[in-house]
Amino acid sequence: MSDTVEQVPEGFELLPEGLGFTDNLQPCYRRLRGDDLAFGLIVASQHANSLGICHGGALMTLADIAAASSANLARGKIAGAPTVNLTMDFIGAAKQGQWIQTTSEGVTLKRRFGFSHGIIFSSRGIVARYNATFYFPDHEGLTQDGVPGIGALKGMLDAD
């Protein structure tokens, strides 16, 4: 474990609980500034592998959430967007106690698909880069209106 625990940067808000698998990353934070959306967390024991660094599965989950949320933000709609593909290059390690954060580097929207790519970084540099593809169904069957916690996420989207 790192000797010090880094702090959550200014402007980040704790994600609500009740978001399904996303809850595995708690405490996880989100910041929305205009159309710049970032997610982050302080690597804790529940995020770490036996080496004491952030587990690749936790990094992929964070990337998937960030990429899908960036695509939904670009669409102006919070709705189910199943992941078709997610690739990740693991570049560096993040130790327990370190803050890691996502940055979206681009979103491309097509009629039924969205493409998003970005990085996860820490104070020590790039931890991973990701590319993701999402399917945007042309029906209301995947709306998230009934999911607990979605109202808070919609409020964050509408507030800015």
Give the SSE layout:
Blueprint lengths: L12 E2 L14 E5 L2 E7 L13 H20 L7 E8 L8 E11 L3 E10 L2 E11 L14 H10 L1
Antiparallel strand pairs: 1-2, 2-3, 3-5, 4-7, 5-6, 6-7
Query: Would you tell me the structural class of the helices and strands?
Result: alpha+beta
**How far is it from the N-terminal to the C-terminal residue, by CA?**
37 Å
Q: And the CATH topology?
A: Thiol Ester Dehydrase, Chain A
What fraction of the residues are assigned to beta strands by DSSP? 25-35%
Helix percent reads 10-25%
GO molecular function: thiolester hydrolase activity
Protein name: PaaI family thioesterase
Pfam family, one: 4HBT
Organism: Halioglobus japonicus
Descriptive notes:
- The protein has helices at 56-75, 150-159; strands at residues 13-14, 29-33, 36-42, 83-90, 99-109, 113-122, 125-135.
- It is built from two helices and seven strands, in the order E-E-E-H-E-E-E-E-H.
- With 160 residues, it is of the alpha+beta class.
- The chain starts with 12 loop residues before the first strand and ends with a helix.
- It is globular.
- This is PaaI family thioesterase.
- InterPro entries: HotDog_dom_sf, Thioestr_dom.
- Pfam families: 4HBT.
